[in-house]
């Protein structure tokens, strides 16, 4: 069994990417204005320039669609590699080491704090996905196994056993349904 050994910022960025993709997959559009975009950005500690205008929101929504397609292609490594390489190229990712008072460990930034938000986010997301690919762990990108859910998840469990997203209580709903089905079967025996 392999041991996960991703850096903190890789795991955080993978989670942030997953949450971004899911902002329109459960309960309708949840990234519908500056307030919801700011809430998302603050929740994951995105730093740097924020224009706080419609063009910035639209560019983040386009990025969401683009990275969502990576999950949809996760079973085709060559295709995902092409998508990640294209995103790295389009964002002009240029890695450099930095640290902040609130995060004193060295970590990578992949774009200037002055670059547009989508570009910084896209570069970070592409690099986190590249780390996943390089580790041979692309199968950790999953679509929720609940039949009524299209949310994505990144399975960071040790044994890659996670099947359900965190967005719609899908795991609990599926377990309750299975329990009820078993109970109904026992009552008919």
UniProtKB/TrEMBL annotation:
<protein>
    <submittedName>
        <fullName>CGNR zinc finger domain-containing protein</fullName>
    </submittedName>
</protein>
<dbReference type="Pfam" id="PF07336">
    <property type="entry name" value="ABATE"/>
</dbReference>
<feature type="domain" description="Zinc finger CGNR">
    <location>
        <begin position="140"/>
        <end position="183"/>
    </location>
</feature>
<dbReference type="InterPro" id="IPR021005">
    <property type="entry name" value="Znf_CGNR"/>
</dbReference>
<dbReference type="InterPro" id="IPR023286">
    <property type="entry name" value="ABATE_dom_sf"/>
</dbReference>
<dbReference type="InterPro" id="IPR010852">
    <property type="entry name" value="ABATE"/>
</dbReference>
<dbReference type="Pfam" id="PF11706">
    <property type="entry name" value="zf-CGNR"/>
</dbReference>
């Amino acid at each position: 069994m392999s041991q996960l050994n991703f850096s903190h910022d890789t795991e955080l960025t993978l989670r942030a990417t997953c949450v971004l993709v899911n902002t329109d997959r459960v309960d309708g559009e949840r990234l519908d204005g500056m307030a919801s975009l700011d809430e998302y950005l603050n929740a994951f500690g995105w730093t740097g320039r924020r224009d706080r205008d419609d063009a910035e929101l639209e560019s983040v929504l386009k990025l969401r669609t683009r990275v969502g397609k990576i999950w949809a292609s996760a079973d085709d490594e060559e295709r995902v590699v092409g998508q990640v390489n294209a995103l790295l190229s389009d964002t002009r990712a240029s890695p450099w080491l930095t640290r902040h008072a609130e995060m004193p460990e060295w970590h990578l930034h992949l774009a200037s704090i002055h670059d547009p938000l989508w570009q910084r986010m896209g570069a970070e997301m592409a690099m986190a996905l590249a780390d996943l690919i390089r580790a041979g762990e692309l199968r950790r990108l999953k679509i929720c196994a609940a039949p009524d859910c299209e949310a994505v998840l990144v399975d960071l469990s040790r044994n890659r056993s996670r099947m359900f997203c965190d967005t719609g209580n899908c795991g609990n709903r599926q377990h309750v349904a299975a329990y009820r089905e078993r109970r109904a079967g026992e009552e008919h025996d």
